[in-house]
């Protein structure tokens, strides 16, 4: 088992009177894919946005590479090496691949961008991820397929010496062939030593690529177990009921009063 790169302990988050996350513990390990699963409203997006610095946490501790981390905004998360690929991808259709990958982080002087250096870095990043579906890094994003867009968004996230990459439903609305390309890319990220968090409702994808499965139920982390130790049916029960056999929340009759 690899060392934890990101450790969250006792995280709480409320929005006004609504307590969304309750004492959540969550661990991301270098070189592993951790699937974060849960029903709609379980708190997955809120947890990701807390990690990314979009939402301030109300309580709990975040450690990165063993050191206490204070994430007050997205810039703090990015400086640590945490990148998020959201479901809408946040790509600009009117720009090409290079321009999208360096959007807001362009290289060069105030009056002249170093186009050659950015193009070289974009090609090297795509090549390091064994991406072969993109013929030219100067292709406009508007001309790319859904799978190619997802690939560009992931490559953009790992371009900045990332240590942890969180992927929000990366295979949603993709066809079979495009899903295969993205899942292969997810595994390659882990093989390169990154800690990968895969948020997905697709259990087939989860069991294919994830090393560990973390299940949120009504804002509580009810299980975080190796994929090989659980079945598809157990994970579904954890998602829908918060427990499955000895896993998850204690049964009412055994809970401490």
TrEMBL record:
Alphabetized UniProt keyword annotations: ATP-binding, Nucleotide-binding
The keyword Thylakoid belongs to this UniProt entry's keyword annotation: no
InterPro entries: AAA+_ATPase (IPR003593), ABC_carbohydrate_import_ATPase (IPR050107), ABC_transporter-like_ATP-bd (IPR003439), P-loop_NTPase (IPR027417)
Taxonomic superkingdom: Bacteria
SUPFAM superfamilies found in the cross-reference section: P-loop containing nucleoside triphosphate hydrolases
GO terms for MF: ATP binding; ATP hydrolysis activity
Tagged with keyword Isomerase: no
Domain ABC transporter: residue ranges: 6-243
Pfam families membership: ABC_tran
Protein name: ABC transporter ATP-binding protein
Organism: Actinokineospora fastidiosa
Taxonomic lineage from the root: Bacteria, Bacillati, Actinomycetota, Actinomycetes, Pseudonocardiales
